[in-house]
Every structure is written in C-alpha cells, then in structure tokens.
Amino acid sequence: MKPIARIAVSICMIKLLGYIAFGLFLAFMVRYFYFKPMMGFGETAPDFKIDDIHGSPIELSNFSGKYLLLDFWGSWCAPCRAENPIMVMLYDRYKSSQFKTASGIDFMSVALERNKEQALQAIQNDGLNWPKQVIQEERMSSSMALLYGVKEIPSKFLISPNGKILLVNPDFKELDDYLAKELLKN
Fold first, then answer.
1. What is the DSSP letter of 44?
2. Rounded to 10 degrees, what is the CA torsion of 183, 172, 32, 49?
3. How far from the centroid of its chain's Cα atoms is residue 83's Cα?
4. Three-state SS for 162?
5. Labelling 1: which of 19, 31, 119, 133 has CA 20 to 30 A away?
6. Is the C-alpha dihedral spanning 48, 129, 161, 57 positive or negative?
7. Are the C-beta atoms of 108 and 155 separated by less than 8 Å?
8. Cβ neighbours of residue 98 closer than 8 Å, sequence gap 6 or more
9. What single string gives the DSSP state of each residue in 82-98?
10. What is d(CA 122, CA 40) in angstroms, rounded to the nearest whole number?
C-alpha cells in the first residue's frame, strides 16, 4: 500500500473512532440526564395523596416517623419481577424492626401499568404482601411517576422518617446495609 493510501486510511480510522466515541458520550449523557430521577439525596420527598388497590387513601404524611421504601415497578417489566423476591425478603426482614431514628419501616409499591388485572395477578403471584399497593394505569405518565421524576423502572426511593430522600435507586446491598446500620440494638 502506498504511503498516501496509508495516511488516508489512518485519517478515516481516526474519524471513525471519533464518531464512535462521540456516540458513546451522547448515549451516556442521555442515559444519565434523561433517566436520572429528579429527586436527590436530602431533598424533601414530594407529598402525595393517592388511593391504594382497596380504595383507601394514602398520603406521605401517613408514614411520618417511619422509613418508607417507595418502589416503582410494573408487572410487564422483567427486571422488576426479578427483583420482587428480594423485595419480599427485605420486607420480611425489616417489617417488625425498630430503628435508631424511626419507629419502623413501611413499603409502598406503585405499579405503573396499562392493565390493572395483570398487576393484581403479579402482586399475588410474586407474594408482595405489604399493604400499601398502588396501581396507576398511565405507566410513566402517571401522577406518582411524574411527581417523583421516574423515567424508568424499577426505581426506588428510601424516604426518612421526616420526609427527606435518603437513597435513590439503591441496589439491594446498599439498602440492606443502610437499614441494618440503623437498626436499634437490643
């Protein structure tokens, strides 16, 4: 190959690598800024008033003095369904616990759906046995998803006893470690 051809091929390769790098950078930025929930550590959790699956009203103030794990999920979402057994395990582990700065913990699941019956079936099949279950049939356009800036599921928020956001989309180890550290020792 002639030297001029090698230079031309090198220039093309450099340009191609530049386009690939720029594309990866754009993908990262879109994922980070678009999918990142609008709520962050230390912010006051937005107040809500919503009915659960039995028609009973739920408000954020109902959880005053307790931790609240707010879980956004969907029956149609494979990663959500895969996480549900871990959620059940965490609920069973901490539902009767006393904490240093809280009288307990409540779990609240918000199913972002198009089909309420499918969600009810998933709640039963997956053993989601905590009483605070909400189904909203507008998926990501639902009032709760918009209020908390949820753009993808699963999404979780751990809210403090005084209504502040403590953890946003924690992995289960991070969540378990945080709650275990806050347990009241007997």
1. B
2. -60
3. 11
4. coil
5. 19
6. positive
7. no
8. 104, 183, 184
9. HHHHHHHHHHHHHTT--
10. 29
Write out the H or E segment, with its range, that includes residue 40: none
User: Cβ distance 160 to 166 under 8 Å?
Assistant: yes
Say which amino acid occupies 138. E
What pLDDT is attached to residue 28? 59
Ranges of each domain in the chain: 1-35, 49-182
Q: Name the amino acid, one letter, at 58.
A: I
**Residue 157, helix vs strand vs coil:** strand
pLDDT 10s digits, 114-128? 999 999 999 999 999
Residues 6+ apart with CB under 8 A from 5: none
Which of helix, strand or coil describes residue 156? strand
CATH 2.30.30.90 assigned to domain 49-182? The reply is: no
CA distance 116 to 134: 10
Q: Do residues 91 and 179 make contact, with C-beta atoms less than 8 angstroms apart?
A: no
Helices 172-182 and 78-94 pack at an angle, to 10 degrees, of 10
90, 184 Cβ separation under 8 angstroms = no
- Which is nearest to 106 in space by CA: 85, 89, 131? 131
- The one-letter code for the residue type at 52 is D
Whole-model pTM?
0.79
Residue 131 token pair: 């009483």
Spatial distance between the Cα atoms of 45 and 29, rounded to a whole number of angstroms: 25
